[in-house]
Amino acid sequence: MAHQNEKVVVLLSGGMDSCVTAAIAASQFEVAAMHSDYGQRTATRERQAFEQISDKLGIEQRLVIDQRYMAAIGGSALTDSRISVPDFDPESAGFEAIPATYVPFRNAHFLSAAISWAEVIGASRVFVGAVEQDSSGYPDCRPEYYQAFQTVAEVGTRPETSISIETPLIRLSKAEIIRQGLGLGAPLELSWSCYRQGEIACGRCDSCALRLRAFQLAGTPDPAPYSFESVREADPDSKDVVSFS
Amino acid sequence: MAHQNEKVVVLLSGGMDSCVTAAIAASQFEVAAMHSDYGQRTATRERQAFEQISDKLGIEQRLVIDQRYMAAIGGSALTDSRISVPDFDPESAGFEAIPATYVPFRNAHFLSAAISWAEVIGASRVFVGAVEQDSSGYPDCRPEYYQAFQTVAEVGTRPETSISIETPLIRLSKAEIIRQGLGLGAPLELSWSCYRQGEIACGRCDSCALRLRAFQLAGTPDPAPYSFESVREADPDSKDVVSFS
Q: What is the DSSP letter of B226?
């Protein structure tokens, strides 16, 4: 394996794309994994996926950062004035606690953190599992975006620092990502794509549906468990959170 | 006044440069002010300056964001593995609680938040009080840096969004900044530059010394109060925090 002594940072959300990206990076480099809690609905479950994938890939150096201010930025669209970031109680977090807030320019927050950390720990690259196919309507999954951020990273870090932003999946389809992941032994069974918080993926939300279709196209079963039974017992048309225990 | 109906975001740390920048923006636009608590030593006092300056300039829309994960990124240089962001107790915060951590690429975190918020609230510009003269050794106060980030903002936001990054002070000297601020009625007496947490600036730390010298060069007294007496009572050579009450 090449470059085994070169350290790199991987942004590891715990989803399928970042899981494959981490496996790609770990096959060539010493990986440090960064995970952001930004107030997303399934933060607790994604954090668990992050830890389990890191364990499986032998990633020792990890940093979990609290970027929940992003929920306040997104939510602020609804209000007018004097908004403070509320204290957040992880115990009571769930569908009701955090509004469904898309934060514009979201990936810049992750990239900034990854580049800061890379400079601090002496990492030469930042790996991001961005996929252009996902970028419908949102521009920060496109190659041009990462090229522009690369320039910021070059201009905005010390002269002797050189950090390369790597997006190995950006041009791939979901089926190609799955095939590449399986070829590298990426622990896809530990990755989390479901929009619903739970121990096991629901198999019914949009994200699960897309994932299952991608595995179908890749011609291989999804190694992750699904709780179809639980979902069928619940109201299939309900948009409310379904709790799986 | 021009563009009074145009909304802009100002990054307002509470220091002298951001105070003058806010006054410049407020003289032309409707201002929304953003402030970051990133685990800096004088966070509580800077927050107070932010609120007082906003009050004085009539800035109604404010957002305070918690970016204290940046302290963990900076601090992580000292450690090896499995670092989590610790829970932070604002009551016990002080010199001892937060290490003196310069975070590389720091301004990207502020700019990302400001651009996200600008897109959410429909602001057309982001004002930043960066000063090139300050950039000794650190590259993210230079015009090239803001030009590069401008490209990221263009590529990374919606096609219909156009957010311009404005750095009105970037080529000015501190004395010129003071003169411009006084000309606009910027409430410099409320701005906070001191490295020491307290109600009144110490007048003795590096940052106070630079500020006082700039006022000397501008040929005008600093309207902010200083607690020279308190400092003389303490050990002038001490690098430890001096508590002023």
A: B
> Could you read off the pLDDT of B101-137 as tens digits, one per residue?
467 899 999 999 999 999 999 999 999 999 998 656 5
Is the pLDDT score of A9 beyond 70? yes
pLDDT-derived band at B93, boundaries 50, 70, 90: very low
Is A84 in the B-facing interface, judged by CB distances under 8 Å?
yes
* Percent residues over pLDDT 70 in chain B: 78
- What is the mean predicted confidence (pLDDT) over A137-161? 89
* ipTM of predicted assembly, 2 dp: 0.83
Neighbours of B199 (CB within 10 A): 10
Give the chain B residue nearest A80 (alpha carbons). B61
How far is residue B172 from each of residues B36, B97, B148, measured CA to CA in Å? 24, 35, 20
Task: Name the token pair of B136.
Answer: 């000794």
In chain B, the N- to C-terminal Cα span, in Å, equals 41
Phi, psi of B94 (to 5 degrees): 180, -165
CA distance B36 to chain A (A): 10
- pTM check: above 0.90: no
Mean pLDDT of A130-151: 85
Whether residue B157 lies within 8 A of chain A, CB to CB, comes out as: yes
CATH topology of domain A7-192: Rossmann fold (3.40.50)
Chain B nearest-CA distance from A114, in A, is 9
Amino acid at position A96, single letter: E
Residues 6+ apart with CB under 8 A from B28: B1, B2, B3, B4, B6
The predicted-structure confidence for A64-81, as pLDDT tens digits, reads as follows 999 999 988 876 444 433
CB distance B139 to B155 below 8 Å: no
Can you tell me whether residue B127 is helix, strand or coil? strand
Task: Judge whether B127 and B104 are in contact, CB under 8 Å.
Answer: no
CATH number for the domain whose boundaries are B7-195: 3.40.50.620
Distance CA B167, CA B192 (A): 20
- Does residue A66 belong to the interface with chain B, where contact is any CB pair within 8 Å? yes
Return the CA Rg of chain A.
18
- The one-letter code for the residue type at B96 is E
Burial, B155: exposed, middle or buried (Cβ in 10 Å; 0-12, 13-18, 19+)? Answer: middle
Question: If you average pLDDT over residues A25-40, what whole number do you get?
Answer: 95
Check CB contact of B155 with chain A, cutoff 8 Å.
yes
Structural tokens at position A169: 């999946």
How many beta carbons lie within 10 A of that of residue A131, not counting itself? 21
Other CB atoms within 10 Å distance of the CB of residue B113: 28
Q: Which of A67, A105, A120 sits opposite B74 (nearest CB)?
A: A120
Q: Does B60 touch chain A (CB under 8 A)?
A: yes
